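Justification of computing resources. Each target in the renewal requires a structure prediction run like the one illustrated here; the chain below, 82 residues long, is used simply to show the kind of job we budget for.
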Amino acid sequence: VLGAAFGWGIPMGYAAVSESLPLSCWLLLLANICWTVAYDTLYAMVDRDDDLKVGIKSTAILFGRYDKLIVGLLQFATLLLL
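Resulting structure tokens:
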């Protein structure tokens, strides 16, 4: 959530400089969100067993056995959106 919150600086910066929010703004924000979910999932994969014990619902648990595939797709999407 913190990484996505930092991403809100993208439309804020666009609005401050150009007083508009063009498509490039939203594509960059979407790239930021994909990148954030990818790296957050990688970090969560290390703690998966502990998260299950205490009941934390991380993306690593949500993605299950497809976690590596989804992280790869998110990273690919990030590159495409940039």
